[in-house]
Amino acid sequence: MTMPSSGPAGALDLLMDMEIPIQVRFGRTEMVLGDVLALENGAVVEFHRMPDEPVDILVNGRVVARGSIIAIQGNYGVRITEVANAPQGPKEGEENP
User: Fold this and answer.
1) What CA–CA distance (Å, rounded) separates 31 from 24?
2) CA-CA distance, 20 to 76, in Å (whole number)?
3) Under a CB-based contact definition with an 8 Å cutoff, are residues 65 and 80 in contact?
4) Is 70 among the domain residues?
5) pLDDT by position in tens, the chain (length 97)
6) In degrees, to the nearest 5, what angle opens at C-alpha 64 toward C-alphas 63 and 70?
7) Please, are residues 15 and 4 in contact by the beta-carbon 8 Å criterion?
8) Dihedral sign, CA of 62, 63, 69, 71?
9) What is the per-residue burial (b if ≥16 Cβ within 10 Å, else e) of 43-63?
10) Coil, strand or helix: which one is 81?
11) What phi, psi does 37 have (nearest 5°)?
12) Is 5 inside a domain boundary?
């Protein structure tokens, strides 16, 4: 068994094959509980985002990039159009300080 090199580079090597969940957020809205409970098949929930606006790509609840939705062989995909330089805003579910 080969041991990874020591130091920061070795620790980073251990993480490079780690799978992490990625989320794509194309909209967000707030609804009162009564409206949520009244949802049924065919109901439409409106989001406050124009269809041509970029979607957010989140890792660990933080926006890491933005892009446009595309279709690839019958599946959805995201074409990256902007990569964030630093974490954008609070993590999902957190309030601004």
Assistant:
1) 20
2) 19
3) yes
4) yes
5) 455 556 666 777 888 888 999 999 988 899 999 999 999 999 999 988 888 899 999 999 999 999 999 999 999 999 999 999 865 555 556 554 4
6) 90
7) no
8) negative
9) eeeeeeeeeeebbbbbeeebb
10) strand
11) -65, -25
12) no
- Please check whether residue 1 lies inside any domain of the structure: no
Phi, psi of 18 (to 5 degrees): -75, 130
Q: What are phi and psi of 54, to 5 degrees?
A: -65, 150
- Give pTM, 2 decimals: 0.65
Residues constituting the chain: 97
Helix boundaries (H) for 16-69: 33-37
- Residue 78: count of CB within 10 angstroms of its CB: 19
For position 80, which CATH number holds?
A: 2.30.330.10
Query: For residue 29, which amino acid is it?
Result: T
Q: Are 66 and 55 in contact (CB under 8 A)?
A: yes
Residues 6+ apart with CB under 8 A from 21: 59
Q: Which amino acid is present at 25?
A: R
